[in-house]
Amino acid sequence: MPYIGCHVSISNGVKNAPLRGHKLGCEAIQIFTANQMQWRGAPISEKSRDTYLKEIEKHDIRIVVSHDSYLINLSSPDPGKLALSRKAFTEEIQRSAFLKIPYIVFHPGSHMGKGDDAALQTIAESLDYCIEKVPDTDVSLLLEITAGQGSNVGYKFEHLRTIIDRNQYPSRLGICFDTCHAFAAGYDIVNEVGYNDTFQKFDDIIGLDRLKVFHLNDSKKPLGSRVDRHHQLGEGFMGLDIFYRLVNDERFANLPMILETPGDEEHYAREIQILKDARK
Ligand SMILES: [Zn+2]
Ligand SMILES: [Zn+2]
What we know:
Layout: E1 3-7, H1 17-24, E2 28-31, H2 46-58, E3 63-67, H3 79-98, E4 103-106, E5 109-110, H4 116-133, E6 140-144, E7 152-153, H5 157-166, E8 173-178, H6 179-185, H7 192-205, E9 211-216, E10 218-219, E11 230-231, H8 241-247, E12 256-259, H9 266-278
Parallel strand pairs: 1-2, 1-12, 2-3, 3-4, 4-6, 6-8, 8-9, 9-12
Antiparallel strand pairs: 5-7, 10-11
The chain binds zinc ion (ZN) (2 copies).
Residues 144, 178, 215, 260 line the site of one zinc ion.
């Protein structure tokens, strides 16, 4: 069975995240390891790390995923911004390794006018750079499929495949499948035929063994809109059936399935319960 959970806040320290998740019913959690709106992350002391690790165990959180800062653009055409992004992403790898987090989910990048292919090349090179800066870690870096809003790349399976192919360390790369993003990008996973077809395509182009994390979000915008607006499960254009199908898909048993739906924290408890009840 997949591990169900949601994104939880690290306010007042990362050590508070496991209890917060536990109270909502999480078996898995996603966190930012630093303030996602600042370039420099505050250092985490060994004492906080140890408390955090004890809390993870105490509250039976089975898997933790981190998400990179929204400021990072690993394909920025601006050399200054690109350098800042690479430095911040390298620090994200260091912090995640320090916290024993196995997966970092990140948005591949946006081309800002230079075009998809050039951006994919820069992202592959940025990942080489960051991986080489912290050679003694084994955190997996998960490219998140995007909605393709603005100049974001990563809205086609082929984009993700290209980044993996052009990177020197493909064994370190995997994929995070965000249901809202895939739907907004034009993958019609809502009906059963489209669902089967999409994951068949994923397997043909990328390989299902690279799929490590799901983000479960409904979409405020219709299929193919290329607009990234998450909605609470069953409230948007996707409905609930897709989520019932996912939590019972044997291919995805043992994967973390993380909610990132809007609203205050209480709605997460309700949605987590819906998903747990749906598991057979
Ligand atoms: Zn994301
Ligand atoms: Zn997501």
